[in-house]
Design a protein that fits this description.
With about 280 residues, the protein is of the alpha+beta class. Helix content is about 30%, strand content about 30%. The chain has two domains: about 5-115, Aminotransferase class 4, branched-chain amino acid transferase, N-terminal domain (D-amino Acid Aminotransferase, Chain A, domain 1, 2-Layer Sandwich), CATH 3.30.470; about 120-275, D-amino Acid Aminotransferase, subunit A, domain 2 (D-amino Acid Aminotransferase, Chain A, domain 2), CATH 3.20.10.10. The protein has eight helices and 15 strands. The structure holds N-(5'-phosphopyridoxyl)-D-alanine. N-(5'-phosphopyridoxyl)-D-alanine binds near residues 180 and 203.
């Protein structure tokens, strides 16, 4: 297995993470999860744009351009073979004596690798269950930051309650989930939270928006409340690994009749065509 380490393809034993790396102390870095279908990066450009946006937001400058990085990622994906998986990439501000201030001279540290991840075929048919929790994260959720403590705590709380995802609520309104965006369908209209600092602008969400527009399904980013979530005709979450995933039960209560809805299934078919 090969790794992308500071711009070079290397074996695992060549990776050396300093004990002073700021990712380790402060979570001072950002990441991306790219999907690989049959050996090829899916929606690569959208992920790259978001990665560079996250870097700008936390004031890290890479020594490579977007197209140079793209070349490296594709070389890494080539070593993975024609399988389904993910490419995980993270960049930290680098290693420097511990101080809250940005170091004067640290070089960013980049690590990437591929991992086999199968499509969740069975769950896509059956749907998943979720619970609702308060959104206790910060006000810059549009940055794909390595700081995921609030997300991991909420995800574990969902797991402990026997659910697969936690839907997060801020001031009575639904934002997103611990590692996915969330949408509802009400009277044939898809509703989701507007982009901005309270959610991550998911790449899968962008694909769904395009699919909805192509299929003539109304798509609104006006957001929705917890009450509207509980009274929705359909609920689904979207992410790089979950794709268009139906949610069939929330807080132990069935979503409508408790089976994946028709618009969700239509979007799933459209999504499959894109990756096929
Ligand atoms: N998570 N919202 C949050 C908080 C996320 O962490 C993710 C993705 C999404 C969906 O984004 P996308 O469609 O671009 O994957 C929304 C990734 C998969 C992760 O952390 O593993």
């Amino acid at each position: 297995m090969m790794f992308l380490w500071n711009g070079r393809l290397v074996q695992e034993n060549e990776i050396q993470v300093s004990y002073l790396d700021r990712g380790y102390y402060f979570g001072d870095g950002i990441y991306e999860v790219f999907r690989i279908y049959n050996g090829r990066l899916f929606e690569e450009q959208a992920h790259l744009s978001r990665l560079f946006k996250s870097l700008r937001e936390i004031r890290i400058t890479l020594p490579w351009s977007e197209s140079e990085l793209s070349g490296m990622l594709n070389s890494l994906a080539d070593t993975f073979g024609e399988k389904d998986g993910i490419l995980y990439l993270q960049i930290t501000r680098g290693a420097a004596k511990r101080s809250h201030l940005f170091p004067a001279s640290a070089e960013p540290v980049m690590l990437g690798y591929c991992e086999e991840v199968a499509r969740p075929v069975e769950q896509l048919k059956q749907g998943i269950t979720a619970i609702t929790l308060d959104d206790e994260r910060w006000n810059k959720c549009h940055i794909k930051s390595l700081n995921l403590l609030a997300n991991t705590l909420a995800r574990q709380e969902a797991e402990d309650a026997g659910a697969q995802e936690a839907i997060l609520i801020r001031d009575g309104r639904v934002t997103e989930c611990t590692a996915s965006n969330v949408m509802i369908v009400k009277k044939g209209v898809i509703l989701t939270h507007p982009n901005g600092p309270l959610i991550l602008d998911g790449i899968t969400k962008q694909v769904v928006e395009r699919l909805a527009k192509q299929s003539g399904i109304p798509y609104r980013t006006t957001g929705f409340t917890l009450e509207e979530l509980m009274e929705a005709d359909e609920v689904f979450v979207t992410s790089t690994t979950k794709e268009v995933m139906p949610v069939t039960m929330i807080n132990g209560i069935k979503v409508c009749s408790g089976i994946p809805g028709v618009i969700t299934q239509l979007l799933q078919q459209g999504f499959e065509q894109k990756i096929g």
